[in-house]
Amino acid sequence: MDRIRIVGGAPLNGSIPISGAKNAALPLMIASLLTPQTVVLENVPRLSDVRLLMRILGNHGVDASIDGKRAGQAEDHGETIRFTAREIVDTTAPYELVSRMRASFWVIAPLLARMGEARVSLPGGCAIGTRPVDLLLMALEALGAQVDIDAGYAVVRAPTGGLRGGEIVFPKVTVGGTHTALMAAVLANGTTVIDNAAREPEVTDLANCLIAMGAKIEGAGTSRIVVQGVTSLDGCRHPVLPDRIETGTYAMAVAMTGGDVTLENTRPDLLQSALDVLMRTGAEISSAPNGIRIRRSGGSIDPVDVTTEPFPGFPTDLQAQFMALMTRARGVSHIRETIFENRFMHVQELARLGAHIRLDGDLAIVEGVPVLKGAPVMATDLRASVSLVIAALAAEGETMVHRVYHLDRGFEALEKKLGRCGAQVERISG
Ligand SMILES: CC(=O)N[C@H]1[C@@H](OP(=O)(O)OP(=O)(O)OC[C@H]2O[C@@H](n3ccc(=O)[nH]c3=O)[C@H](O)[C@@H]2O)O[C@H](CO)[C@@H](O)[C@@H]1O
Ligand SMILES: C=C(OP(=O)(O)O)C(=O)O
């Protein structure tokens, strides 16, 4: 199994190209099930989750082909992938596939909308929490679907004549629920109103792609989305949104090590709350042409309290990385996790590097220490793994990060991107 070896201590200087967002690419790929025409996605990140979803979609009959690199195209540019679901050959998503990638549960909506039925394995919990889907199924019911749970599968059927527009009121903000509601409503008869919709940029990106396919959607990016159903959708060409979590992760790495890095192909409005927090820690942040510049030239890291919240609040997907930064702050910070009940698996591993963190329910109390020291570490999920990389970059000596496959799910060319800014990071294969 691959490992990543990091020798800490060097500041980061240079530029890092930000990839397309995993959490936008996955629902966009799934939306290709809605049309027999070709959906061409540009700026798709090279990630294991993308490859796995290509296989899962292939099981339903989607033909996915990666365009060759065009002459003159920048090396850092993501892939262009064509998805064509001319015919849906299977409306079942089996346990073996759904259990390997949670986002694949969302195929339930386009399969139901286009084929009138779907049978999708329930995803179950994972290392960060329970990950329920009751609200996703509630949304489908609100559009007239009959929903049954049978032998670990959600079995959904549209009424005769197809799904019909309805009123979906989410009792709490759910990103997966909003993706599901959108993909079901676009082909329903009549108007659907989604209330308390998620406002995450990845939801807006999905809505924009659906609009380019011919869907009628208003209000994406606000908490009330109105969808006027259409009878069919076309293909389209759509670039995947920049990854705000990758952006924030590298910004936190620079705030941790010091240095001066420009994050390219990204936008500050995608993560303003996290950038505001970083500025309060003492980092300097400014906009750069087509990106964000982050600097910290010595001086201490100030402690800042954060609470994770749905967008536009501080994202749960940056909580672990921010905790890594706070382990070196001059003072005590409080980090409250409100989205997932168990997203503190990195605490034990950060402690192996010398961090002082105490847990009290959903609150982590981080007492900054002057020095971290390298150690062998291992993480159980994607963002926890990268928080260990950030801590290791500022630690004295060598850290070996095990279970690198978590990182490969969500961070394209991590060691290359950090290496070109002066970090000593290498992948050891086997
Ligand atoms: C609001 C939020 O920050 N969502 C995050 C969540 O999206 P993801 O789509 O995985 O999860 P949701 O947004 O649906 O979940 C938000 C909250 O709603 C609850 N819930 C969800 C669905 C449901 O049917 N029933 C239910 O109770 C969840 O337990 C959670 O507490 O994880 C992703 C991966 O880390 C992040 O990128 C998203 O930013
Ligand atoms: C936890 C994440 O992904 P997933 O929802 O696929 O588990 C993530 O993107 O941080």
From TrEMBL:
Gene Ontology molecular functions: UDP-N-acetylglucosamine 1-carboxyvinyltransferase activity
Pfam families for this protein: EPSP_synthase (PF00275)
Family annotation (InterPro entries): Enolpyruvate_Tfrase_dom, Enolpyruvate_Tfrase_sf, MurA_subfamily, RNA3'P_cycl/enolpyr_Trfase_a/b, UDP_GlcNAc_COvinyl_MurA
Enzyme class: transferase
Domain Enolpyruvate transferase: 8-418
Active site residues of this protein: 126
UniProt cross-references to CDD domains, sorted A to Z: UdpNAET
Subcellular compartments: Cytoplasm
Pathway(s) where this gene product acts: Cell wall biogenesis; peptidoglycan biosynthesis
Record bears the keyword Cell cycle: yes
Keyword Aminoacyl-tRNA synthetase (UniProt): no
NCBIfam families per UniProt: murA, PRK09369.1
Name of the protein: UDP-N-acetylglucosamine 1-carboxyvinyltransferase
Species the sequence originates in: Alsobacter soli
